[in-house]
Design a protein that fits this description.
One of its GO terms (molecular function) is oxidoreductase activity. The protein is an alpha/beta fold. The chain is about 45% helix and about 10% strand. The protein has helices at about 10-15, 30-35, 35-50, 65-70, 75-90, 100-110, 125-135, 165-175, 210-220, 230-240, 255-260; strands at about 25, 55, 95-100, 120-125, 150, 225, 250-255. The strands form two sheets. It has a four-stranded parallel β-sheet with strand order 2-1-3-4. A three-stranded parallel β-sheet has the order 5-6-7, with helices on both faces.
Length: about 260
């Protein structure tokens, strides 16, 4: 952890020194445990370090927000997980929380307040967009010259919280343009893993939702597809593999695009 770009402050360590960061970065289960999304969490941490943002993570004190439990109908388990997290967050007097997962974002922002967890919850695409608009994040390098990209709207980011423009603005800041899918924004097609679907067997049907979405992306004839959700990344990457298009089409998270543009 000697590399400054990889150094991630932990809330307990800062509190022990009497320091309080401006932001808490909520990593989420995928950012902590999923090999692919760990790369996204690292990318965003590098960006925060590059911007010299005052932030920290909870580390071992962070637990699942309870999103999957709630979607699956286990309200008691959700409230147990939520109350545990709220106790930790309030003990640190947390105000601003940045999330790289739309499911965590939605739960912390819209469902924790009724349980006593009131925070200023920010999605990382809006944060990145603001940093770019304010000139704090200067993107002078384009490592994707000549390549085209589309963007897949995560349900909990788009329809769930009406965040459509921020992620597109971030991608456009590097690529210059986003080739829209035929089903996008409020008419976007789900990747197939929301609502706790990630953790259950598929139901009977003619086609998996992620395959339907992947076929739409392939039809768009682009080199890259940007996403902003760990579930979407898993489902789209699986779809691309199943269609044997790995050499032609790559799924990148919005944070990874900025990381590569900044050469972090």
């Amino acid at each position: 952890m000697t590399d400054k770009k990889l150094h991630v402050p932990v809330m307990a360590d800062l509190a022990a020194k009497g320091e309080k960061p401006e932001y808490l970065y909520w990593v989420g289960c995928a950012g902590a445990f999923d090999d692919r999304y760990q790369k996204v969490a690292r990318a965003f941490a590098k960006i925060l370090n590059h911007l010299e943002i005052s932030y920290a993570v909870l580390g071992k004190e962070e637990s699942c927000t309870g999103d999957a439990a709630k979607r699956a109908g286990n309200e008691m388990l959700f409230q147990m997980q939520a109350m545990q997290n709220i106790e930790v967050l309030n003990a640190y007097e947390v105000d601003k929380i940045i999330c790289t997962c739309p499911h965590c974002y939605n739960t912390l922002k819209n469902e924790y307040p009724e349980l006593g967890g009131n925070y200023n919850v920010i999605n990382y695409t809006e944060f990145l967009d603001e940093m770019i608009q304010d000139g704090k994040l200067k993107l002078e390098n384009n490592p994707f010259k000549g390549e085209s990209i589309t963007y897949h709207d995560p349900c909990y980011l788009g329809r769930g919280n009406k965040i459509y423009d921020a992620p597109r603005n971030v991608v456009k800041a590097v690529f210059g343009d986003v080739k829209e899918l035929k089903r996008s924004r409020s008419f976007g097609l789900c990747c197939g893993a929301g609502g706790a679907q990630m953790f259950k067997e598929a139901e009977k049907g003619d086609k998996e939702v992620n395959i339907e979405r992947t076929e739409e992306i392939i039809e768009r004839k682009v080199d890259k597809v940007a996403s902003a959700c760990p579930f979407c990344m898993t489902m789209l990457t699986d779809g691309i593999k199943l269609k044997n298009k790995e050499s032609e089409l790559q799924n990148l998270d919005v944070a990874e695009i900025i990381e590569k543009a900044l050469e972090l």
